[in-house]
Amino acid sequence: MLYREANASMAFVERSIYLMKRYLGWEIVFLTYTIVNAISIAFIGVAMGNTRQVLYLVVGAVLWGFLSLLFHDISESIAWERWEGTIEYTLMAPIRRITYLAGTSASTIVYGLVRTIIVLLIISRFFELHLENANLATAALILAISSISFIGLGFLGAMLPLLSPEKGPQATHILEALILLVSGVYYEVDILPRWLQPFSLISPATYTLKAMRAALLEGAGPRELSGTLILLLVMGMVLMPLGYLAFTMGEKYARRAGRLSRNG
Fold first, then answer.
1. What are the extents of the domains in the chain?
2. pTM (two decimals)
């Protein structure tokens, strides 16, 4: 059964590859936007005349590009199923729901990693960035652990299009924007108003960004970041099952209310 479910998950990965080929022009547009956006943000550091600030902003822009892609693509998977007209076939298929979500998550992670590497290579050439002191192994570990939390958040976001076919996809953008606001992607969370700062404490992106900057800018290793890594792992272990539970409950509601295949 495990082998069967794994093969079924790989089928969703293969389908994502075909969809990417079909919309290759749009993928190039989005990749170009991501690169230009990161370069524009890095120029803020250049204007300040501070090399470290350039690296600080580049790390934030590139990492947020990866994490937001995980959240965005997974949370909008149901909207894409509706767009392609395959939602009934997918959700009625004789497979476990976790198999569908695992395949969707795996394809998004691979795509996100490839896109992040391309963006980072182009930016490093553009600004001649030097990361001699960077601890790349620790950075990879941080990325792997933090991905669990954002996959869980993606599952939570994917529930919204099930609850509301009309406004659900737009609501996922609001949730993404709130995470961006309180997580210190381009600034320290200390500058946030006092009433907003507590929200940064429950965002996994806050700890991911701090740990990643410490690993890439200061060469920090797993020992120095052990507390943050454990916290991220715990958050992932909470958010993943919570997101899966929310998604299945949203699906049951959509079936009862007849909203599964509605487009408006």
1. 2-257
2. 0.84
